[in-house]
Amino acid sequence: MLPVSSMPIQVSNPQVSPDKVLEIQGLYKQFAIGRWGRRRIVRAVNDFNLSLSRGEVVALVGESGSGKTTVARVIARLYKPTAGTIRLNGTPVPEKLSRDDLLAFRRQVQMIFQDPFSSLNPLHSVRYTLSRPLKIHRLAAGREVEERVKDMLERCGLTPPELYIDKLPHELSGGQRQRVGIARALSVGPALILADEPTSMLDVSIRLDIMNLMLDLKDEEGLSYLFITHDLAGAHYVADRIAIMYASYLVELGPSDDVINEPLHPYTELLKSAAPKPESGLKPERISTTYDIPDLTNLPPGCPFWPRCPYAEDRCRGEVPQLREIEPGRFTRCVLK
Ligand code: SF4
User: How far, CA to CA in Å, does 142 sit from each of 117, 145, 149?
Assistant: First the structure.
């Protein structure tokens, strides 16, 4: 793995603000894979900068392997960053956390996982799943635990709670399981929720219900969400701002309506063109590209999108373009803008 000091760290957005729930500056994450002289470095996240305000929803959008889930896992302390700074409520999160510090951190930052079945222990009832965080964080004791579990179930749409509290995960539908996952995340009163594709494994008919539930809870609790998804339409529905990732780089960031209606980056155009359009019989109007997703162990020199970009020029094969603010609040990583 590259030593941090030798890495080309470029901070595109150096402002920090104590009003922000989350500020990420110059984040890099690399993984070493292979052994016995065949070691390779996966550059999963490069030069990543993003902040979230209180009550804001930012959708992090990209295809598989773009690095979006790695970003969430680094924020959640499931992976250590290779380089970069993460601030929570204005305070840098230290590289090493004591057990108590980690507990306090987890109270502030919770995750909702993609697969509501595998994220719940199949042997534990809903009661156990929801009461455990309350006990670990010493937020309730005795009869109050049961009352708070029932209250969370009701607020997450599992009513009457007596019907669900003793059920095991396999006795619930996918949507009900995800509601339990949301209740578990909210039970400790976090400031930030990292939602990793929370609706992608659910039936289309209940995705909207879950997104609406998350938005209602956000308004009630003053939460901020980093909503990770590959679905641009879903991102537009839930998010105030959309951040687009491609091959480990943040390539576009801006208000949701602007990113959807007037994309700045050719990759955002590609994502938009690939989304089903009800008015054209659900048939996406794909723009043509020739290559597939690049190998993160061997990114092409220059702009990582040039092998697929219909507008690529010679200068695109030189250096990785910087993420630049083209107009207030709108950023893109493309030499054409
Ligand atoms: Fe396309 Fe060049 Fe812009 Fe990259 S920098 S997105 S290759 S036009």
Answer: 28, 6, 12
